Amino acid sequence: MAIAAIRWLVRWLPAVAWTCLLGLLPWWVGLPLLLLLALGAVLLARRIAHYAALCRRGLRWGLPGLLFAVQRALGGDLVAWGAALLGALVGFSLVVLMESLLDRRVRRTAHVQVSPEWSELALAPIGPPAHIIELTRADWREVYDVFVDPAGESVRYEADGVGSGRYVFKRGRVIDRASPRYCFGPGGRWFVVSLPQGRGDILWDRQADRMHRLAGWQLCGWEGEQPWLAQEPDGVPTPLHEALGQRRQ
What we know:
Blueprint: H1 2-24, H2 27-43, H3 49-73, H4 78-102, E1 109-113, H5 118-123, E2 130-134, E3 141-142, E4 146-148, E5 154-161, E6 164-169, E7 174-178, E8 181-184, E9 190-194, E10 200-205, E11 210-215, E12 218-223, E13 226-230, E14 238-239, H6 240-248
Antiparallel strand pairs: 1-2, 3-8, 4-5, 5-6, 6-7, 8-9, 9-10, 10-11, 12-13, 13-14
């Protein structure tokens, strides 16, 4: 119980403190802070996902504090509360719109071309064949305690520092030095977690029980049950076997 209470405080106390701080500050101080968080959420969405998530959380929890500061500046009467409620409706609508635009489905296509000999190209009635690959976006989530995997087994996350911890599976598998950001593959075969500070991803093939720590590579989507990765947010998607080959070079 004590450990659960500590984890609850670690998760929620900073958010509550942030709300109270913006409620005590003048509104003209809190407004630029929220605008900076909105800018950070947009700029970091495709660069460092962990920091982008923190900016979003700061927006969601900071907006009520800012609205309280606004009604306090307007005198705290019924008109002030009405203006604050109207601001809440507009503000949260804009936040939801921004998050939906940032989380919209990203479709990437990659063309794998076969390069035949020049004589075959000369005799071929059409150009080189191409295979269009349509990637499914990874369903990233964030955890601070216990969650259930696709097989129905519980998984425990034990935080050991800021943005770092380890995953403990029921069958004894432990993945350490990982962030609370994780996702499963479409069929549940793969389990992927991010390294702290967005330094890369860890991929665990649960069927073959193989672990891959890929520093500098980030999961960008799935083709069926196969992971595709990229070295940059806007980089060319690469299948796992090619990413492992480039890492060995």
